[in-house]
Design brief:
mainly beta; five-stranded mixed β-sheet; 2 helices; elongated
Length: about 425
């Protein structure tokens, strides 16, 4: 081929090449349209995260589904179409599985499941009313005296005092003519509560009276004689401090008289279930001639003149020591003085050492206990050492009258009368 012919053939060759390249380009374009060269569809879909904010809910409560997905063309949660990322608030009626499916156009897919448990909440706890306080200013009185009832109730819809509607909080003065029960009853939609107090009304004791002829009573031990047309029996063998008990044989009630020469002067009329003239080591108690009397199950104290020292309201009264006695009321212990004044209220499980012959105070201090914890009170009734001790001894029991040994949190401590307790 001559040089001239070669150059004439070049355009034809270029046209041929151009035709081939154009065909190739058309084929590539067609394949692209069919997705053969879509790089995104060659990557598998990926669930980056799929969470439920609460996987356990009560009926009526909600949870939030939160997700992030990559490389997916179609995303559904329980057949609901969603985007690549987002959140849905759900209120399932029962335990439900939430299935997230992410797929591409090639049919590749991946799934994740989150289960939300639906539970039935427990019924609300009933809240019946609470009687915070119901007490009486005095639980034993003489006939004609008045007392004040005091109460406070929380959470009540209605409150009744002896079947009479009253406010949820208040006080009321009453003058019972005889021993009476007072009941407080409170209610609401969740229930009720009640409490009761008893006021014991005592008949006034007969005043002391001297016996004059012909009603003089010769002291014949254990012999029934006539007194004011009633047969009484004198118990001379039980006499102490010039006082002697006697019993009226018809009613079987007891009284106390004072020996005057060979005659008996009536101190307490025979109105009591039992009378005791206890042994006393306390000189003042001996001088005053303390008489313990019982009506029903309760005890009180009179002196040798017939004066009432305490109300008849105690379960038990110990002998006096140094002007003080341990008393028990409704199972709780306290301390009174020789004049019947309450020094330590009867609200402790134990006062002093656990013995009926115990003195109330030793070296001016008394151990007291409640609910397994102990402390100390002084003669003024002040709780000097609070109820923080596991075990206590009397002041002076270890030699020093101004200190007591005790245990606190398993360790021995020494307490003084100012209330300071130091570890050994």
């Amino acid at each position: 081929m001559s040089e001239k012919s070669f150059w004439k053939s070049i355009p034809e060759v270029l046209k041929y090449v151009a035709g081939i390249l154009g065909g190739i380009a058309a084929i590539i374009f067609a394949l692209q349209q069919l997705g053969f060269f879509n790089s995104k569809d060659k990557i598998e879909p990926r669930i980056v995260s799929f969470e439920a904010t609460r996987e356990r809910v009560n009926i009526g409560e909600t949870t939030k589904l939160i997700w992030v997905v990559e490389n997916a063309k179609s995303i559904t949660i329980n057949d609901q179409a969603v985007g690549l990322k987002g959140n849905l608030l759900k209120e399932p009626k029962s335990t439900t599985k939430y299935i997230l499916i992410a797929s591409n156009s090639k049919g590749s897919s991946t799934t994740q499941t989150r289960t939300v448990e639906v539970v039935t909440p427990p019924p609300p706890i009933p809240k019946p009313p609470k009687i915070d306080r119901f007490d009486v200013s005095k639980d034993t009185i003489d006939k004609g005296e008045s007392v004040t009832l005091r109460w406070h109730v929380t959470g009540a819809k209605e409150v009744h005092l002896n079947d009479r509607k009253v406010a949820v909080s208040g006080n009321e003065k009453v003058t019972p003519k005889k021993t009476s029960d007072f009941k407080l009853w409170a209610s609401n939609n969740d229930g009720s509560a009640s409490d009761e107090v008893t006021v014991t009304v005592l008949e006034l004791a007969s005043p002391p009276s001297a016996v004059t002829e012909p009603e003089s009573l010769p002291l014949l031990p254990g012999v029934s004689i006539s007194f004011k047309n009633k047969q009484i029996e004198i118990f001379k063998d039980r006499a102490r401090f010039g006082l002697v008990p006697f019993r009226e044989n018809t009613t079987r009630k007891y009284g106390v008289g004072e020996v005057v020469g060979n005659q008996l002067k009536i101190i307490l009329a025979p109105d009591y279930s039992e009378v005791i003239i206890p042994e006393q080591s306390d000189p003042t108690a001996v001088k005053n001639g303390m008489i313990e009397v019982r009506k029903g199950k309760l005890w009180g104290i009179f002196d040798r003149t017939g004066r009432k020292v305490t109300t008849i309201s105690y379960d038990h009264i110990s002998p006096f020591y140094d002007g003080f006695a341990v008393v028990t009321r409704k199972g709780k212990e306290g301390i009174i003085n020789i004049n019947g004044k309450t020094i330590v209220p009867a609200d402790y499980d134990q006062v002093g050492q656990n013995s009926d012959e115990r003195p109330a105070f030793v070296n001016d201090m008394a151990p007291v206990g409640r609910d397994g914890k102990f402390g100390f009170v002084n003669k003024a009734g002040k709780l000097v050492v609070p109820l923080i001790l596991d075990y206590s001894t009397n002041f002076g029991q270890w030699g020093n009258p101004n200190t007591a040994r005790a245990k606190s949190n398993g360790k021995w401590v020494t307490c003084d009368k100012s209330g300071n307790c130091k570890s050994d």
